[in-house]
From TrEMBL:
GO terms for cellular component: lysosome; vacuolar membrane. This is Glucosylceramidase. It comes from the Eukaryota. The keyword Nucleotidyltransferase does not apply. The lineage of its organism: Eukaryota, Metazoa, Spiralia, Gnathifera, Rotifera.
């Protein structure tokens, strides 16, 4: 009955609902979960863009819910005063600003490429449009692994010829040439935004490492600054120059994916170990000067690991070798183990190093041993994404990057058996792909909070619950205020929003187990 009244409320108060969008083709796999949206070579749902008509009278909201809404657009009238019965009261304070945003996106791993390019050309186009085009969720960030990772079908690097210190045998792989590069080029063609590429490496060639293996406990051979470290820096430059030959220029790189992994005995997939001290010295003695010499204009991010290492990792990098500060631009974090440490560590890190941005570079659900890899239609996983993104953004993080852009129905392929979930799952036998609720969770941020948006203060009074979360931004270019609200509880929540400067109010309801993006103009 609650859903009936919610639909009636929206019909009465909305100027329009569906517009020109193609709706989700729903498929329910398990009644315990929500729906997936099915796309193929002839059909794929789309998302309506924000419109610019009568913005003084109407605001726009996009809703995703466990009951089946997927980025559904509603155009609503402003109210002249707040509702006295609202459970949650939010006040927009546009004059109080925080960090600027880089964007949102995901990683084109080998496994993503493998799955995507086993679809028909028409289905591939629909998938790329879903992620990057104006009718999709408009990602503007792509993470590009440097050679093989666990989400590859094999172990490899770009130069597995022992003792090739001059890297004469260096070459991009089939995975780059047939999957990753064509995918990025296609994304660039359909995107209305400027896409930012950043790179991360998992393992150096085994012959450069102390354990002579792609995985396990291993570091580069010899002292930092020595020939193995220099060859590793040269290897990075070769990678970037090789991609430049295809017209692809990178915005940034991380100094190493999860540098702590390579210090763990019997670690099960591609890794290379660094400590904060060796990472600092590698950047100062090898990587930083080499990138500067190559005139690549790249931003360097340290850590690229769990936030539980903050602020200590950054403190140790910059105290051990203060010269690292002139090369390092940012600090990269992953979402794994976030529950073990409060987001306050991000604030502490920002306060200590306000000139170094913090950027979230990896997240996914269902690490080995922590539940099923793939759960078709899981809304809880979508809520976890929204919760983590809002939490990060409220603590100085400048963007958020998902892990694999597309996996198969088992959560792979993965040569190490480390299967996980993904916002898009590919069923190559039926030439279709399934959009999980996580896909729409990402879209609530990526489509509406463009690069350059600035977080603003959002004061909250009334109902306080760990099931509720909210964040606000302003986009000065389009004169928009953007809010994202989450309700993880099983009860509807009424709220009022007060835009102090305009004197306009929004009185509405946040459905149980739902999230929404609200766009208003100023």
């Amino acid at each position: 009955m609650q859903i009936f009244y919610l639909i009636l409320f929206l019909l009465v108060n909305s100027q329009s609902i569906f517009g020109d969008r193609l709706p989700c083709q729903k498929r329910l796999y398990n009644t315990l979960y929500s729906y997936v949206c099915v796309c193929n070579s002839t059909y794929c749902d789309t998302v309506e863009s924000v419109d610019y008509e009568q913005t003084d009278l109407f605001y726009q909201e996009y809703v995703t819910s466990s009951s089946g809404l997927r980025l559904e657009k509603f155009k609503q009238k402003f109210d002249s005063q707040p509702s006295p019965s609202s459970q949650l009261n939010l006040t927009i304070v546009k004059s109080k600003t925080y960090q600027s945003i880089f964007g949102f996106g995901g990683a084109i791993t080998d496994s993503s490429g493998f799955n995507i390019y086993h679809l028909s050309p028409q289905s591939i186009d629909n998938l790329i449009n879903s992620y990057f085009s104006k009718t999709g969720i408009e990602y503007n960030i792509i993470r590009v692994p440097v050679a093989g990772v666990d989400f590859s079908t094999r172990t490899y690097t770009y130069d597995d010829t022992p003792n090739d210190f001059n890297l004469t045998k260096f070459s991009l792989s089939q995975e780059d040439l047939e999957w990753k590069i064509p995918f990025i080029q296609s994304a660039l063609k359909v995107s209305p935004k400027q896409i930012k590429l950043f790179a991360s490496a998992w393992s150096a060639p085994p012959w450069m490492k102390t354990n002579n293996d792609y995985k396990g406990n291993g570091t580069l051979i010899g002292p930092v600054g020595g020939k193995y470290y220099q060859t590793w820096a040269d290897y990075y430059v070769k990678f970037f120059k090789s991609y430049e030959n295809f017209g692809l220029n990178f915005w940034a790189m991380t100094a190493q994916n999860e540098p702590t992994d390579g210090n763990i005995a019997k670690f099960t997939f591609n890794a290379l170990g660094f400590t904060p001290e060796t990472q600092a010295d590698f950047i100062v003695k090898n990587l930083g000067p080499k990138l500067k010499e190559a005139n690549l204009g790249l931003k360097i991010m340290i850590l690229d690991d769990q936030r539980l290492f903050l602020p200590g990792w950054a403190e140790q990098v910059f105290s051990h070798n203060p010269e690292a500060k002139k090369y390092v631009d940012g600090i990269a974090v992953h979402w794994y183990l976030d529950s073990l440490v409060p987001p306050k560590v991000l604030d502490w890190t920002h306060d200590k190093f306000p000139d170094k941005f913090i950027f979230a570079t990896e997240a996914c659900h269902a690490l080995a041993g922590l539940g099923p890899a793939v759960v078709l239609g899981s809304f809880d996983r979508a809520e976890s994404y929204v919760r983590d993104i809002i939490e990060d953004l409220n603590h100085w993080v400048t963007g958020w990057t998902d892990w694999n852009l597309a996996l198969d129905l088992k959560g792979g392929p993965n040569w190490a058996g480390n299967f996980v979930d993904s916002p898009i799952l590919v069923n190559k036998s039926s030439d279709e792909f399934l959009k999980q609720p996580m896909f729409y969770a990402m879209g609530h941020f990526s489509k509406f909070i463009p690069e350059g948006s600035v977080r603003i203060d959002l004061e909250a009074e009334g109902l306080s619950s760990s099931s509720l979360a909210h964040v606000a931004f302003k986009n000065e270019q389009n004169r928009q205020i953007i809010l994202v609200l989450l309700n993880k509880s099983s009860q509807n929540v009424t709220y009022s929003i007060n835009d102090l400067e305009s004197g306009k109010f929004i009185n509405s309801m946040l459905q149980a187990h739902s999230f929404k993006t609200i766009v208003l103009f100023y």
